[in-house]
Amino acid sequence: MRHPYQPGEKWRRKIKKLNRWGYLLSCVLAVLPVSCRPVVNLPVADNAVRSYYVNGGTYRDIALTFWDGISINYVFWDIEPDRLWDTMWDDYLPGIEALGTRDPEDTAKNSRFMGYLREMIAPLHDGHFTLSSGNYQFAPQRDRVRARFSGGITDDANPELTFSSLVNDWTGDSIGFPGYKKWNFVKDLINPRYLSGEGRIASNHGLRIAQGKVGIPETGGHITYLYFSGFMLNEVIKKESTAAPNNRLVTNLLNTFWQNLRSRECKGLIFDMRGNIGGATADIEYLLRPLLTEDIYFANLRTKKGEGRLNYTPWVPYTFSPRDPIPNAGSIPVVALINDYSISCGELLPLAVRALPKGYLIGTTTWGATGPRIGNDYPNALNDGSFTVRWNTGSLNVVQAGYQTRGKNFENYEGIGVEPDLRVPFSWKEFTNNGACDAGGIDAQLEAAINHIRADTVHPN
Amino acid sequence: MTTAITADTARTTDAKKNPVNSCCFFVFCIALILKAAPMGAQTEGSRNPWFNLKLVEQPWYIGIYGGYANNTIYQGGAENSRPGKIWKNGHGFVAAIPARFQIFNWLALQMETVFITKNYQYYYHSLGNKPYNETINFFVDFPVLINLSVRPMGMTGLRLFVNGGAFLGLWAASYERGANHTAASDKPIYRYAGWYQFDKRRDNRFEYGLAAGIGVQYDIRRFGIFAEWRYYHGLSDLQKAYQYNLPPQMNSTWSVQCGILINPGKNGGGK
User: Fold this and answer.
1) Which of the residue ranges A135-149, B32-46, B101-115 would you say has the lowest mean pLDDT?
2) How far is A319 from chain B (nearest CA, A)?
3) Could you read off the pLDDT of A94-120 as tens digits, one per residue?
4) pTM (2 d.p.)
5) Contact in structure between A72 and A126 (CB atoms under 8 Å)
6) Inter-chain contact B190–A23, Cβ cutoff 8 Å?
7) Strands B60-74 and B250-262
8) Which residues touch A196 (CB under 8 Å, ≥6 apart)?
């Protein structure tokens, strides 16, 4: 009689039982999360207009789309404190949720909502960052630059020298002296007092520009000077190309500038970047490539690789080559004048000047917006930059950089500014000739640049 | 499994699971394993003597294999959030040293040291395919697999097998090459290539997941020559949880490989 438990029989019975339950167990395993993966919900932008459309009717819905948009498009997370944006969400969510359903007629609620958003973005260091909606406009770096002026910035502590006066003087219509219009200091002081030569002032298509020669008594020859209000030189040249020759005001002035610069009598060059709010990066090359004898490398750029905040592409160098060099390329000193309202390309050109063999920066710290913006010709194509949040009764418009820029040695300037090699504060008392606003004033920063070049001319390095 | 930390469970991190797509293949393999085991257990006098519970003498095999690996980076849906940006799978290689402990004819435990590249790439379709980026990730994986095999009737030396199990891995190195925009009009595109510097705030260099494979082996004397198709299903995020609503980055890798196993203790005989 066969024993019921032959060798191995115990295991065979167990395996037969397992067969019965085998399929059931596999179904149980199917619902276990052991092999499942998380899914995220990210807003998908309308490709043509870089807009995210809000689903839902509450302030929370708008805030969440806004928060997601910043999270995936802002490019400076690596210089912000860890988890800053998550902390902002945690801190402000209760107040935003309490606002409930959005109401375009409730100005108090809307004001509170915009106030929350303003506080959330306040710590962000992007110098281009601007949040606007209707009559509201917030720019964190503007507030930080404003704070530089509490108590004045000049040695003589002129009370007229406030942030407002700085803005107005270099970009607005008037300063604290009634009737004194913007950019008049170029026309009424710099031009008549310091410059000589033909065709020194022009204004066309929103661009104001001044150039001229500054004589060097000790050695003869001259320094070439150029001031312009924004990086739109090529744009205006293109617009003027269809005008009559006499109406190509900016083009003709620039031709005179290049003649002065290409003269063998030119011993130095001053770029006046004070109050220059930036524009097209192509103008940097337009101005600097003729000054080169070899490739220039002055900064590094990177952008986002993926949607995670710290997911970046490798750095690429910001570099360009010589083009049609001037006779004295590489041998003449080049000075860039900078101040707190030198912004964007108004800071990148000085960075490039610093990389020149005899480049030098004079003035005060720049604004701190070195990361280039992306234009609308790349709608939603890249991982970063400006965007709009839209809903049926309104929108939030976010302007921000699309790239990080660091210095040649990866120094960060964003939200900080570029420091001058020689700090020379601006004195309104001297500049306006104690309020007379005439050619009797003194531009201490410009004179420091002239003296620097004259010293190099007398004792070349 | 990595899930981001959040206070907003309605939208962010405890993200919805997606059981159907991920589980199907593994359900199939697990069911196959469970079905094959009891099917193989036969009593004395069974029609197929392959499936017996006789412990194998000289159970250890050691070998080597190599082949091609193809990887996709899973991003939880984020890969579709930029319509002009295309993410593609990457091509790489695999090389490994397997060690197999043959318990029964049909059942073995296999442990491997696998050198594998898990690559991926993207390009901006809307910008003429530049910028683009190819990321080459070098991993050392340690899968532990249950190996089940069956010898088709009448085919001496040939066996069909399935593998199923899990793996741990180390993200050893990363190399990137590609092109990106610059701000200079005379050099608008810059081509780069170089080793990636790991960011300790961001990068999670330890990986784990499930692995399964199917293949064929021909045994001759002490050697076994095999070919296998294998799939690695990464369950760990290559990123640390450094932010809310972080899109995951997980490897999904398949490979085709062939190699050879040798039983050093075996003398003659090929079955």
Assistant:
1) B32-46
2) 7
3) 999 999 999 888 999 999 999 999 999
4) 0.84
5) no
6) no
7) antiparallel
8) A212, A213, A214, A215, A222
